[in-house]
Amino acid sequence: MRNFKAIFRKQLLDSLKNMEIMLNFALYPFMGFLMSTFASPNFDGVPEEIQQMLAAGMPNMMMMMATMFAGMGLIPVVASIISEDIEKKSLRFLTMAGVKPMSYLLGVGAVSFFLAIFTTFAFGFIGDFGGTRELLVFVAAMLSGVIASIFLGATLGILSRSQQASTGLTMPAAVVLGFGPMLAQFNGTISRLMTPFYTQQLNAIADYFSGGPAAAPLWQSFAIIWANVIVLGIVFAVVYRKKGLAQRG
Amino acid sequence: MATISMKNVHKAFGDNQVLNGVTFHVNPGEIFGMLGPSGSGKTTIINILTRQLSADSGEASTAAESHEIGLMLEHDGLFNRLSCLDNLIVFETIYGIPRARTLEALEKVGLSDAHKTEVNKLSKGMRQRLVLARAVLHHPKVLFLDEPTSALDPLTARGIYQLIRQLRDDGSTIFLTTHNMEEATHLCDRVVMLHGGQIIEEGAPQDICNKYDAHKTLPDLESVFVQLTGGGLE
């Protein structure tokens, strides 16, 4: 517990002073706010699908930005934190002082989750999802997605030798998970391909808020998201066992 | 019983044989210096003794658990965006020691006034002093110092020497590497000279200088090294 507390405090202070990281937590709700407030559904040249989506109201736009945050924002953040501590050899001093690698990862993951709670509520309040029940559904879906992203980010961070390498590893995953659900709205094949991914299900939950025809029942979306959490958790455990952290710091 | 010992240790990285049958021991409560030019294998020895690296063959042991060891290595591993004090608080929490000891460590290395300064705003010398404060924070049983004064001005270096002697007097065993022969002469109780992956001389600095009749106005270990190897230090 002492080690977890030390890592949590260190990482929270470090993240709050790291502009790149804080930008990732603040940018997506801010962009969602700008788009839903100022984008006009009747703007000339805007494809009909986009116009429909904009017309459907804020929740869809917010859900799209929330999906992008989970996919594009959070994964590189977690990978970057871990790879920085590996590259700068900070992790070596922590493990030599007696911090177990799993305590370190829990501390880093907990800080990312903690900051993501604020981002999630920012989406929730700006997005105006309706009543308390809708807000709770949104928060539950988002935080489940956040856990999946933290597992994926941590896995890629462990695999990276440096921060630069982590960017190369996280970018393809971020593009697929972040942009995939957006592209899926315009193409049935992409939509089917994206169905097993948690970010696609986060986006699908937008239908629940907009009152439109739902692509899948709510419980099914949650089931797929949690299946992602479990699979990514297992992948993380396998990579962690194989690669370890203690010898890499 | 020796606190640190190596017996016939070999280590190679690919075709590069870095250590070739290294044998030495360090007694409890002494300041032990490992001298040699850059690339001679000093850091590899520290990595093996701190269990961060395995030897290919031979025996290496340090009579202390990981958390009883203090480390000051080439890569400082500091958290750059945190202040000096916050860097130490991370380790204070891990070791479960009182805040007073953290403040005392900062004072000992002369960083009390800079305790709120972010690490990325510190000079190289100040960083090195902070690393030393972190290394001694938990009053370690064994302290490994890799080139502890390489970036320090002479005055600060003297302060560090005083701190190292004080730690020795408090019962810590200190293993330091350096290519600064003058530093070794003044600071170390015993030294070994490392060259070509082997120990080429061992003993008290004064005794080694006497053995090779190497005296200028002060005992001169560097001359001994040049005599033994035919080459100078970097």
**Structure annotation, total helices of chain B:** 8
**Beta-strand segment tally of chain B:** 9
Give the C-level CATH assignment of the domain at 1-64 and 142-151 and 172-234 in chain B.
Answer: Alpha Beta
User: Number of DSSP strands of chain A?
Assistant: 0
Question: Termini distance of chain A?
Answer: 21 Å
Coarse morphology of chain B:
globular
- Assign the CATH superfamily of the domain at 1-64 and 142-151 and 172-234 in chain B: P-loop containing nucleotide triphosphate hydrolases
Report the major sheet of chain B: 6 strands, mixed
Helix content of chain B: 25-40%
Structural class designation of chain A: mainly alpha
Radius of gyration of chain B: 18 Å
Largest sheet, spatial ordering of strands of chain B: 5-6-7-3-8-9
The low-confidence runs of chain B, each spanning 5 or more residues with pLDDT under 50, are none
Q: What structural class should be given to the helix and strand makeup of chain B? A: alpha/beta
The CATH topology assignment of the domain at 1-64 and 142-151 and 172-234 in chain B is Rossmann fold
Sketch the topology of chain B as an H/E string, one letter per element.
EEEHEEHHHEHEHEEHH
Would you write up a description of this structure?
The complex is a heterodimer of chains A (249) and B (234). Chain A has 249 residues and is mainly alpha-helical. Chain A has one domain (2-31, 60-243). Chain A has twelve helices and no strands. The longest helix of chain A has 30 residues, at 58-87. The model of chain A has no long low-confidence stretch (mean pLDDT 84). With 234 residues, chain B is of the alpha/beta class. Chain B has a domain at 1-64 and 142-151 and 172-234: Rossmann fold (3-Layer(aba) Sandwich), CATH 3.40.50. Chain B has eight helices and nine strands. Chain B has helices at 42-49, 84-95, 99-108, 124-136, 154-169, 181-187, 205-211, 221-229, and strands spanning 4-13, 16-26, 31-35, 57-62, 69-72, 142-146, 173-178, 190-195, 198-203. The longest helix of chain B is centred in the C-terminal third of the chain and has 16 residues, at 154-169. The mean pLDDT of chain B is 87.
